[in-house]
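Example 3.2
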Amino acid sequence: MDLTHISLFAGIGGIDIAAEWAGFRTVLFVEIDSFCQKVLKRHWPDVPVIGDIRDATPEVGCCSKCGAPWERIVEKERHHAQWGGPAIKDSQAGIGSPQSFVRNGQPGCTSVKVTTLGWQPTCKCNADKVPSVVLDPLAGAGTTLWVAKKLNRKAVGYDTSGEYCQLTVNRCRQQVLL
């Protein structure tokens, strides 16, 4: 059996090199930083890299052969809302201040509306899809499992503490965050 894993918050893939030495094959990277994504794509060109962790276990499932998730086909619309007040240059604005969001000399902010058009596989296996499963080997108080349930994902978690395991069972049963 082929040992595979998904690398969450992958950085530039240091732990994944060690995983390869141990016999694991990385089937997906989840990393939000664009520089790190470029490094991962250069060193693992055949492994998909996604930026949003919610897309690591999409509701449509994953490949039944290699375990790679399906990815959203999206349409993005950018909108720029302008604020009142005098126009200033970026260099005059303090970082993090409302005035630091400047476009064409006008302060404001840009929002992006994302619409899902469909789904497509991230691999070339041409195999059926199966439901995605979230694995949390350090479940603790069960937050990952609770969120997975809220997002209609299947989840498996374990922990060395019986007390935490019972807390997790209770949280998921109640459907409320304590």
